Amino acid sequence: MSQSLTLLAYLLIPIASVLFIPVTSWALGRWYQNGLLNQLEVLESQHGKGYGEELLVSYQKKNDTMAAEYSTLLMANVVVGPSWGQMFIMWWKSLMGGSLPSYAAVLEYGRREALQRLKAQARERGCTSVVNMRIETSVISTAKGNNSKSSSVEFLAYGTGVR
Amino acid sequence: MQPQAISLLMSNVETIPGKIILNSYGLVSGSTVRAKHIGKDLFAGLKNLVGGELRAYTELLNESRNEALQRMMLEAHNRGANAIVNVRFATSSVAAGASELFVYGTAVVVE
Fold first, then answer.
1. Domain A2-162 is classified in which CATH homologous superfamily?
2. What is the ipTM of this complex?
């Protein structure tokens, strides 16, 4: 009986120590990212969500654009990265395939944050709308070799603010 | 030598809103390649413990992009233009740990 328990411990300890970092990181990351998301949602409730709102459009609004008295190029960027726990899930999922909701949530957060920052800049300069808004995504960090420990994605939102 | 900061009118639509384009001076561009600071990279790597925004990178890329913009504006200024229209940004990972920030547009003279 005690022998089988020892055997079980010998099996469990390596598994637990391998999983310790990803699980801790996943839990901490979930807590931290939820906090960020809550802050973002407060901003969004104050200033609107972004897509399909009056302030931010992705077309060149001909009439308003021509009548503008002031215009400026606005840009806002944000770099986001997944937590180690999420990377671990990504690695696991890459064996089986399938969707990655936790990673998609990170990217979604980055994009919404970039939009909110663009809107904040537009307000700062007194612009009434941003026309021809574009969002660009790029992978900025591929560490040497393939053992990328800090994988991150940049979102750049830019457009022409008019008033 | 750090060039003096210039500020031209810029937009990413086909005109400068509310102004009339008088003359065009062709394509201008500016680029910068930035490698990550090893300390910052280490810190950002640790930041991946919780994920979310990596503020060090956000600032780094913002600075570099402003530098590329400055270079583009200097080129346009030297050609005698006072505005740049249809500005586009392009970012690419050119080597391990380095990215190129490229910005281009059309130099014009507006009234």
1. Hypothetical protein apc22750. Chain B (3.30.110.70)
2. 0.86
